[in-house]
Amino acid sequence: MGLARATGILLGKELRTELRSRELVTTTAVFVLLVIALFSFTFDPSSAESRRFGPGLLWLAFLFAASLMLQTCFLREQANDTLSGLRLCVGDPFAIFLAKLAANALFLLLTELLLLPVFSVLYNVPILRVWPSLVLVLLVGDVGICLTGTGMAAISAQARMRELLLPLLLLPLLTPVLIASTEATAALLSENPVLRWDWLGILLAFDGVFLTVLWLFGEYLLEE
Amino acid sequence: MGKRIAGVVVLFLLLALTTYLAFYYAPVERTMGVIQKIFYLHLPSAFTAFIAMGICFTANLLYVFRRAPKWDWLGVSAAEVGLPFITVVLITGPIWAHPVWGVWWTWDARLTLTLVLWLLYVAYLLLRSMIEEPDRRALLSALFGIFAFLDVPLVYFSIRWFRTQHPQPVILGGPGSGLEPRMRVAYLLVWAAFTGLLILLLRSRYRLEAMRADVETLRREVEGR
Q: What is the pTM of this model?
């Protein structure tokens, strides 16, 4: 079975699981909404202030939400004892990572797309005129978060205090993603919106580096 | 045993000598004054920490491919010994910055990078304490170490594009940079002494880790009976 086919089948499984329970996207969306609402108490959310702080708080909310959402992706396999089964079925363990990564990135993107209009309304930041570029930034950033996140989730799932450990491992690694995506988003939400290719370049470089790392070392992460 | 004592004595003498060099032999810097002396602690600590980080990464890679426990021992030793050196960098930096820049801390590229490095090292050590089973601990922490090390250049470049206030490199910098010869001697000797200290600590820590592994094996054997 080729890598693409295996990934496709596994991705189907991940999406089906989520479609049946609808737990992940709902919970994450509520969490992000909560963070957005709570952040509004920490500064005056007028239009000018929101332009300054909005992108940063938005991405922090996404980062925290992701570090909670990614917990389940290996814990679920562990709880049902299905990881060994998966490993036996799939020739290349990289397919397991690719599928989980794609599913998580999709869920995260979906959550963000649900919450962006809410953010825009609550913080008086217009997003309609830049939405295609914004979706591009979100997508590239999400892939970065989920690339490292899936790897770290595989590590933390095998440790004690895993709920606390995952953010500890993941968040410092995500510094470049946070900076680059915040800056790119800020440029898009400014008075004269521009798509900053330099920041997008950093995000793409991050994605490239960690896709390679996951491809090279992914199989060791799943060793029994 | 004798060799180890000799090493400690030589290192002690070297550290004493470099203290003298840094405080009396090297001239007082013209604009910054006496506060510049802290650089003799700050800069060599940073370089030594980088060496420790390199050793840690190499050991992690070797562990993943070779699976010999000794590489795991070396990895954890390098991380644990490197961490205090970074801590020294993070403490001496603000002490220098306060009178010279007027602020304790600024979110400049190198400062932020150092802080993120420190956090990554701490995460690596925390991860190790959260996994009981030795083989799994070794493998997973080695993999995290590899992720973390490859993240560093990305962190650096992303922060660098923000803004930079840190003094430009003077030792390996471009034209116009350079050091007064006596200062250079002091820097290099302090660095040599610190590297010696690193090696000495690394050896003791490595031996301790090896002993710990032995004890663990024995304990399991006894429990198995």
A: 0.89
